[in-house]
């Protein structure tokens, strides 16, 4: 039995959902998101609660049960509060600035990196050493943040690079004589 799948998803006020077949569409103040579930689960809408039920007791149905419930909960969270990832730039001369809709990064390369922000995502740089990625799609926010981080991953000796806020970097001791 899925512990996560058993819990119904409560839709906050100002959020409406519509189920048609295996597709659920959630509308809220920040936008509209939809998700198509697999054939192994049923999505049931009762007023302002959405519940997910497996169609059988097969292993695949039980796997899809909890995952589908989590996806529906993420839809509701995304259209109300949205998702946010914060990045820090650590290193001498490492800077970030917005240039129109693009993010301009100075990361110690011979050139500046221009990162094109995809549609549906907002990127801001409140300080020169901070980048904030926000949006209503959790997967897309995480992917954009990971792609920015990939330009200069944190290294274990000095800790320089782009890291998530409050990320712990395991430090190594340098070479000894």
From TrEMBL:
<dbReference type="InterPro" id="IPR000702">
    <property type="entry name" value="Ribosomal_uL6-like"/>
</dbReference>
<dbReference type="GO" id="GO:0005840">
    <property type="term" value="C:ribosome"/>
</dbReference>
<keyword id="KW-0699">rRNA-binding</keyword>
<dbReference type="InterPro" id="IPR036789">
    <property type="entry name" value="Ribosomal_uL6-like_a/b-dom_sf"/>
</dbReference>
<dbReference type="Pfam" id="PF00347">
    <property type="entry name" value="Ribosomal_L6"/>
</dbReference>
<comment type="subunit">
    <text>Part of the 50S ribosomal subunit.</text>
</comment>
<comment type="function">
    <text>This protein binds to the 23S rRNA, and is important in its secondary structure. It is located near the subunit interface in the base of the L7/L12 stalk, and near the tRNA binding site of the peptidyltransferase center.</text>
</comment>
<dbReference type="InterPro" id="IPR019906">
    <property type="entry name" value="Ribosomal_uL6_bac-type"/>
</dbReference>
<feature type="domain" description="Large ribosomal subunit protein uL6 alpha-beta">
    <location>
        <begin position="12"/>
        <end position="82"/>
    </location>
</feature>
<keyword id="KW-0689">Ribosomal protein</keyword>
<feature type="domain" description="Large ribosomal subunit protein uL6 alpha-beta">
    <location>
        <begin position="90"/>
        <end position="164"/>
    </location>
</feature>
<dbReference type="InterPro" id="IPR020040">
    <property type="entry name" value="Ribosomal_uL6_a/b-dom"/>
</dbReference>
<protein>
    <recommendedName>
        <fullName>Large ribosomal subunit protein uL6</fullName>
    </recommendedName>
</protein>
<keyword id="KW-0694">RNA-binding</keyword>
<comment type="similarity">
    <text>Belongs to the universal ribosomal protein uL6 family.</text>
</comment>
<keyword id="KW-0687">Ribonucleoprotein</keyword>
<dbReference type="InterPro" id="IPR002358">
    <property type="entry name" value="Ribosomal_uL6_CS"/>
</dbReference>
């Amino acid at each position: 039995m899925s512990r996560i799948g058993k819990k119904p998803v409560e839709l906050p006020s100002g959020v409406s959902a519509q189920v048609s077949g295996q597709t659920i569409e959630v509308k809220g103040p920040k936008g509209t998101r939809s998700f198509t579930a697999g054939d192994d689960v049923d999505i049931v809408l009762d007023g302002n609660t959405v519940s997910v039920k497996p169609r059988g007791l097969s292993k695949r149905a039980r796997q899809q049960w909890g995952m589908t419930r989590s996806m529906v909960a993420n839809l509701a969270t995304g259209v109300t509060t949205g998702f946010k990832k914060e990045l820090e730039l650590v290193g001498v001369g490492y800077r970030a600035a917005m240039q129109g809709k693009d993010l301009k990064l100075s990361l110690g390369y011979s050139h500046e990196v221009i990162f094109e922000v995809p549609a549906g995502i907002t990127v801001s740089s409140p300080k020169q050493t901070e980048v904030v990625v926000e949006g209503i799609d959790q997967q897309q926010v995480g992917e954009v943040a990971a792609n920015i981080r990939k330009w200069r991953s944190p290294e274990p000796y000095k800790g320089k690079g782009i890291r998530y806020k409050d990320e712990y970097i395991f430090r190594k001791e340098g070479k000894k004589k």
